[in-house]
Structures are given as C-alpha cells and as structure tokens.
Amino acid sequence: MNKIISTPAPDLRERVRIFIENPRFDQAIIALIVVNAITLGIETSPAIVARFGDVLYAIDRAVLAVFVVELLLRFFVYRRRYFHEPWRVFDFVIVGIALMPASGAFSVLRSLRVLRVLRLISMVPSMRRVVNALLTAMPGMASIVGLMALVLYVSAVMATKLFGGIAPEFFGSLGSSLFTLFQIMTVEGWPDIARGVMDQSPYAWIFFVTYLLIATFMVLNLFIAVVVNAMQSQVAEELKGAEEIHTQLILDEVRALRGEIEQLRGYPKS
Fold first, then answer.
1. Half-sphere exposure (CA, 13 Å, Cβ side) for 209?
2. Cα(133)–Cα(252) distance, rounded to whole angstroms?
C-alpha cells in the first residue's frame, strides 16, 4: 500500500507573498494609479466637480484605501526588509503624504495628492531603469553643473559690463543678466534680445554666438552624454546579470540530467 505523503500547506504570510508578487497584482495597482491620475485631472474642472464631485471623491478615497491595504500587505510579508528596497520607501512616502490631513492649515496638501501618480515609476520596470540611470549619473552631472554655473556667471558679469547701458531691462544688473543668459541658453527668444543689443553695438553678435556655442551646444550636450553613458552601463549590468542567471540554470539542468543518467546506469551518484 502506497503511503500518501502530505506536504504542509503554506502559512498565511507565504500565501500573501505569492499574492502580492503575482504580476497581475502589480498590473491591477498600475491600473488604479492610472484611474487615480485621470480623476485628479478631472478635478481641475470646476464644472465637472460641481456635477460629479461626490463620485470623484469616492473614487479617490477608494483608491487610497487600496494603496494603504497594499502597503500593509507588503509590511506583513517583508517586515523589516520592506525598508531595504528604496522604491518601497518611495511608495511609503507617497502614500503617507496622501494620508496627511488636507483641511485648515494643511489645505495646501490637497494639491500633493497628485504625487500618487509618481507611483507608476516604482511599478513600471522601464521607468525604474531610467530613474536609476539618472541617479547613477548624478556624480558626473554635478561637475557639469559646476562648469555651467561658472560659464553662466562669467558671461553674466561680462554682459552686465558690456550691455548694461544698452539694454538695462536685460543686462542692467547681475541678476537680470543671469536670468537673461539662462533664457538664451534654452534658445528661447535669443534672436530678439541679440538684435536689440546689436542695434547699438554691431559686434555684440560675437558674444552671443560664442556664449551659445559654449553653453548650449557643448555643456548641455555633456549632460546628455553622461545620462546616456549611465543608461548604457545599467543595461549592460542587467544583461550581464541575466546572462549569469541563464548560465546557472543551464548548469543546474545539466547536473540534474547527469544525476539521472548515473542513476539509470546504476553508478553511484557523485
């Protein structure tokens, strides 16, 4: 008579872990985040709020309740390990802000409810990769920011001395020069500013063209180069990790097959 070997049923914590790590669970949370984003956008229309305000409020409260339950389930499963993952901490902060009172002195916090939409970053892997790449590129970007600030400051001092009397509304002080040159760096309306100055100083184009070449076409492109390099490095690391996992799986299968063959031949298992 064959013996029936019973396997112990998984405990509650394990069942909850399987539930929250199911891809369908993540897809459902993503769908709720999108719905919440749509309702928060609709609330910007006074006419719609006057007609469907109660429904929108009910949807908002229901979605927030689901988010709170989700966090409690993750706390229950991961416990102290919950805060070992930065993206879980991010979710905790976002939902915590939504739970703060939004009346009286805290009424300004009502506008922060839209931060819940940012949870898409932690739920969508491709978005997480982009943000991780940006964070990885921060040390390199810091030196570029310093270089840009230096170029902007030197150019603003020169522009104030050269064009302060010609166009005081743009270059009358160091502060106005900094703001104007920052605007020029974005290539927004700079021809009008340059032509206004060139009417009285024909050779001013030398300053503006040189500044644009240095600040826009060189320094800003360095930002892009640093970010792209960080993203490529992260993708390479992920591919390397996936390749190592795939190789390990193949080795495990080969070992298992070897063990089965040795058992069939009657040889002792090594």
1. 7
2. 33
> Which residue shows structure tokens 């184009």?
205
CA 81 vs CA 18, 25, 89, 150, 249: distances in Å: 16, 20, 11, 44, 27
Residue where one domain finishes, among candidates 65, 97, 123: 123
- 151 and 206 belong to one structural domain: yes
Average pLDDT, the chain: 79
Residue 182 has pLDDT above 80, yes or no: yes
One domain for residues 61 and 171: no
Q: Which amino acid is at 40?
A: L
Average pLDDT over residues 79-102: 80
Residue 240's domain spans which residues? 138-258
User: What pTM value is reported for the model?
Assistant: 0.59
What's the token pair of residue 48? 């719609």
Provide, rounded to the nearest whole percent, the portion of the chain with pLDDT above 90: 9
